Amino acid sequence: MLRKKMKKQLIFSLLILPSFILKAQQNDTALIRINKVATVHKYQFVHAFEGNEDTCLLEHKKFNNLSAITFHRTDMRCNGWNNSEERFFSYVNGQLGALEIRRDNLPYAKSYFKYDDANDPIQIITHYSEMNDTLVSKNEFFRNSKNKLDSTIARRRNNSGKQTLIKNVYRYDRKKNLVQEYTTDETGAPLSMVSYERMTDGKMKSRAITVYGQNPSFKQIYYEYDQNSRVLSTVDSQNRKQLFFYKRNGLLNNVYTYNGNGALEVEFLFNYTYHE
Questions:
Q1: What pTM was estimated for this model as a whole?
Q2: Which of 75, 93, 124, 140 has its CA 20 to 30 A from that of 11?
């Protein structure tokens, strides 16, 4: 399961540099599969706006009968920006074959994926419509003596011949839990590092995200769990807190988000439809 999760994260990190936005307010893919979820509508209600009575559809996701995501729309107008993004996923023999991205209803990028016998994405070809440029990423995967993913290298080339190299290194603890992801460029200069502090049972206690370069940043997120091992709350290094509430089937019902002063700012609400 860890290898599949890491592979999925890697596919998208090869398309764009990681944004490291907190993703805790998303359902686990296993719950999507178990509950045969067909669609997820994620609404945003801003409590900070006094007198506000309206919700805004922030995200819309669709899943096929195999629980693979086929569509994802994000409407940033909910956050005051006049733009939106749509992602269309298509599959070949159970593997992601193509990903099309549209921004503000206009073509932005389309990627095609090629896999090796181990189902690793060894090549990703992305064409950017606006720039009329094509980025080819050829990827190598390296594993340790226990066949766990040790590192990856992505060699990228665009139309003008410009080449870049991105290297990811993964480290584990004695219980084989992922504890660090480290990303560098072709010179070996660090781009980002994500460190995971684990509890004795392997659950994540905290997650620290460091971004290097011209706009460096650091963020640490701490996790608490309920008696069912579900995330109960998170708090970050800026004292911003989230509380999580679940439906009887285990899927998220709503999430409260508090600012650093402890005031309730935003609530996320989830609605679902299911495959029969």
A1: 0.86
A2: 75
